[in-house]
Amino acid sequence: MPIDAARKPEARTGTFDLDAALAQGANANNALHAEHINPRFAKSLGLIGFDKTYVRGEGAYLWDAEGNRYLDMLAGYGVFNMGRNNPVVRDALADYLSRDAASLAQMEAPVLSGVLAEQLKERVPGYDYVYFTNSGAEGVETAIKFAHQATGRPDILYTSSAFHGLTNGALALNGTDVFREGFDPLLPATHKTAYDDLDALEAALKAHNVAALVVEPIQGKGVQIPADDYLKQAADLCHRHGALLVVDEVQTGLCRTGTFLAMEHGGPVDADIVVLSKALSGGYVPVGAVLYREAVYNKVFSSLEKCVVHSSTFGQGGMAMVAGLAALHALDEMDACAHAQEMGDRLGNGLLAMKDRFEFIGDVRWRGLMVGIEFQAPKSLKLKSAWSTAHMLSKDLFCQAITIPLLRDHRILTQVSGYNMDVIKLIPPLTISEADVDWFLTAFEDVMEKVHKFPGPAWSAIFQIGKNALKSS
Asked: Which of 92, 223, 257, 296 might form a disulfide with 368, Cβ 3.0–4.6 angstroms?
C-alpha cells in the first residue's frame, strides 16, 4: 500500500511559507529547470523518462506525487549511506537549531569540529589532524595544495578513468576526457598513469617530479576494483620516490564497501592523506574531511603566521559538524559495515548467478554495496546486430536499455557508471533489506529477458530514444 507521499509536517509559524513555494513549483520542476537552470539536462531527463517529481524520501525509498514508491539504488551518488531522512541525523539537526547556537564566530576553536575530528581519527587511526571542507572536490583541492607544500614538488599523478570532482584542480585529475574537453588550461603538471598497474606507477614516479598520487581505492567510474595489495604497494612506491599517497574515499568511505574505508580491504595502507565527504553529510548539510599526518601539517601550517594559510568559511559550521557526528552515530547504530557486506554479497551473487543465462552480462564486480554490472557484446547474430546498432547511435545507449525499464516498469532508480562505459553502478543506501535486494534481482532478470529478445519492444523503444537524442543534439 503506498505511503502518503504528500503528508505535511506540523504547521510552523514564521513569514516564509514553504508550502507556497512547493505549490508554486508543483509538477513543474523540469520546466523550471529548463527555463532557469540547465535546459539540456532537463531535456535529457525527459528523453529517458527520468523526469519524475519525487516528493518524499525515507531509507532506501523515494515517493512521487502519486504515492508510488521507488527503490533508490543511487543514494544521491552515495550520499545516503544511512538512508534518506535518517531520523538520528534529522533529530540531531533539529536539536541543534533549537539552541540558537553561536556558529561560525570564526575567531574561535569550535567545540563540535573538535569532537568530530576526534571521532574520525578514532575510526581511521594513524592520522594526526583533520581539515574540514564542504565537499569531496574541495577536499581533493586541499590535498593537492597540501601535497605541493609538503613535498616542494610540482607534479600530481592520477589514474585512468579517475573521478575526483569537477572544480579546476580536481578536474585536472579526471581520467575521462569528456569532462575535461574545452576547459583548458587546467592545473599544469598533472600526469595520468594506469590504474592498478604498479609498473606504470613506478615509471611515472621516475619520469616526473611527483608530489603525490591521488587515487580511488575503488573507481566510481566502472566500479574497477584493484588487486588487494595495490594501494599498499602504491604507498611504498610513492614513499620510495619521495611522493605522497592521497586516497580519495569520497564515495567509497563510511561503510559503503563493508569496511569503514575501502582501502582497509587489502590490509593497512600507509596513505599520507585521506579525503572523505558525501555520506559524512547524512544527506542534509554538505561536509567533507581531509585526514592527514603531522609531517604534512608542519609543512603547510608551518608557523603562527601561517596558521590560517588554508581555510574555508563554512568548513566548521555547526550544522555541518552536527550532521557529521550524527551520521557516524547512525552508521554505528545500524552496524552499517556488516550490513553492507551482507546485502552486497546477496546482491552480487544473485547477479552473478544470471551471468550464464544472459549473453549481455560480461562481469559482476562488488565490494559491499558498491556493485558494477558490466555488459558485453553477445555471440548470437541477432543480439550482436542489436548491440552494434545501439553503439552506433550512441556508445552510452545500451545501458539506457537497462536503466529506463528498471525505472519505468519496476520503479527502481539506477545510473550508468560513466561515459562510454557499458557498466551500471549500484550504490544504494546501506539500509536496504533482503526484500529490497530481491526486488532488484527480480526486476533486473525481467529486463534482461526482454532485452535478449530482438527484435522486440525493448529495442524499438531504445532505438527511438537514440534517434531522438541525435536529432536534438
From this structure: 257
